[in-house]
Amino acid sequence: MRAINRFNVLDTIRRAGSIARIEISDRTQLSTTTVSAITASLLDDGLILARTEGDLREAAARGRPRVMLELNPDAARVVGAKIAANRMVFVVTDFRGEVLSTLTLALRVDRQPIGVIADLIEDGVRRCVVDANLALDEIDSVCLGLPGVVEHRTGHVRTSPIFRETGVDFAKEMSERLGVTTIVESDAHAITLAHHWFGKARDLDDMVLVSLEQTLGLGVLHGGQLFRGAGGLSHNLGDLVLGMGPQGIIRLASLAGESAILGDQPSGRFAEAIRLGRGMAHAKTLIDAEDNTLISAAIRAGEACGMALANIVTLFAPPRVILVGSSLALGQPFLDSLREAYSLAIPPSIRGVTELVFDQSTDETWAQGAAVVALRELYESPWGTTGPAPAL
Amino acid sequence: MRAINRFNVLDTIRRAGSIARIEISDRTQLSTTTVSAITASLLDDGLILARTEGDLREAAARGRPRVMLELNPDAARVVGAKIAANRMVFVVTDFRGEVLSTLTLALRVDRQPIGVIADLIEDGVRRCVVDANLALDEIDSVCLGLPGVVEHRTGHVRTSPIFRETGVDFAKEMSERLGVTTIVESDAHAITLAHHWFGKARDLDDMVLVSLEQTLGLGVLHGGQLFRGAGGLSHNLGDLVLGMGPQGIIRLASLAGESAILGDQPSGRFAEAIRLGRGMAHAKTLIDAEDNTLISAAIRAGEACGMALANIVTLFAPPRVILVGSSLALGQPFLDSLREAYSLAIPPSIRGVTELVFDQSTDETWAQGAAVVALRELYESPWGTTGPAPAL
DNA sequence: TTATTTAATTCGCACCCCGTTAAAAATACC
DNA sequence: GGTATTTTTAACGGGGTGCGAATTAAATAA
Question: Which residues of A touch B206 (CB under 8 A)?
């Protein structure tokens, strides 16, 4: 019970950024007595800091000025990473989730053996930590966000476009290499939490996020918690079936995946751009130059996404859906056809329930989301004292 | 906190049927002390009963014999109902969810004004209660399971095939008529809970149920709780989009809904059978007689369902999916094509995660499920005392 | 009959939260 | 400077919760 209240208080402080005890007791419905006790213990553990200035009540602040409380940035450091097929982005953040250093590695890792990928990630983590003027043993936790189907609880990667192998115990592997607790999570879940903490869902505890990257992913926030499916699996939208064609099953990925839009051939005109991770940006340039093949591919992809989106909204009926990912960079043809297909496909009975939001976050935001996954677990840890100081 | 533990203990007793305190403390991880206190209060409130006999440990029972605890059937009575377009089924159950009386009314209610439907339901409830040798004021709660999109929390029916109107405050309406707390819930949710309590998901706290009736519904059980979407909406599978045809959007309902299979025309050859609620049974007879039109309709419907099912499994990855509903009565052509389409459409990455189970429950089971919805709310109510007797 | 075994209860302890009250702290107003 | 105002801390009593140790209860085995 204390643990729950502690978490709530800590989370209230995080959301507010800077807040007085009175406000906390107001928002959490806890008595000021209790809030005082909990904040005292949080101060004691060094998780929060008190600041005297900064009382921003309207002019007439008569009585004793409030003491503002805020997270102690130095209470913990974590590493978050977005691992994609053609690039890796690492960030080190402080306890608030604020980025301390960033590192982007533009290199193609898919189809590499797992040992090589692990090597590269290990290297990236270590370099990014050094860039933040830290040592690895000052890092409390690492979280890797990667595409594919990931079992969060066990760190088991069932399938991922970046691995040739299936069923990899990647969290274990990386924990051993780094000597730091390492969590593996789907990249879509990471960006979902990033939006919950910092982005376009700060005000909502229920929402759905659809990520349109090389892989098509889904994040569902339900009561402030990620909905992780029964077994803690992530959702792989690309596998959704959109219909039956002459060649058999038509999956969303085959219409709206990156390779479906840009073409898959290693000799294709995008091969070079893709290798450099600039595929979508390049495509945008061509679309602006009225390249008809690409425009029609973008339109097809938008239609497919719009229909899949309508199905997801039919199932979850969230107040807001956030769309993210590199495909958004395709611009008007894609977005317009998506919107049109969506509004055609959305059933009348839930029309108006859901608001559609597009967001083009940087890769850094995704990595930051991974850091948030790690931080959330730290927030819920019992930490130092849970009550009076332990007996000596 | 007590409330939570009380509910857990009560639910443990329900699941076991008959169980000793020690076992409860074993399963709930509560201390025997706490279990004793809670069971004492439950006994005090008359929610459970103690029975000395019935200690079924293996032969050598040395020490003090266990006192078995079980639900007190008389602690409460509820009415559950399944309201369909061509029939209504009511049950009265005791506190355990055991059926005390049943009433089936075969009558077509869709397209009737809402007042008429309410009249019929009111009548059915009253008659079924009388059949159980009870008076209405001995009923603690009523739950109506009906097809369509229902907001459970408010009892608001957004759309339903049995109402011409949209946005009906049906719970309020019926509560006032009956003078008994009345809950409105989607029929799919009702049958989901029925399977959780009594049927093919007794052993699981996570599963998905798909109901193939006139309307296509979905129930998702997550951690023993119904997943009700963000706003408490139910899920209407019929609105799922399966592709784009020459006539525009193709929805699941247009391929696999009852009217899609049997034909919609009032002058059709099924008109009479449908009116009597025997549509599917009649269809089965014709299929057995090798009626090719029907067989191909059944196959089409099966394919559509199989594909939609694969999408749902892709999203939720439950350990088990239960399929229920009148369409199952179509037999081999339908089931085979469903299974085939499903196994074709299910992505390889989660193959083997989910087990498919078919179940042809009677209408009574659906109504019983509605009763379970009502009972679960009673279980969570604070009831009489929450601790020592209230001060006089 | 006595010892043994197992189940259930009683009792005391620690904890947690709340409300009230009082006191201390830090400012603005007069 | 004194006074009013507001936030924060501290102290006390009351009620609740859960747990462990000791105790009682009820049966069987020797």
Answer: 230-231
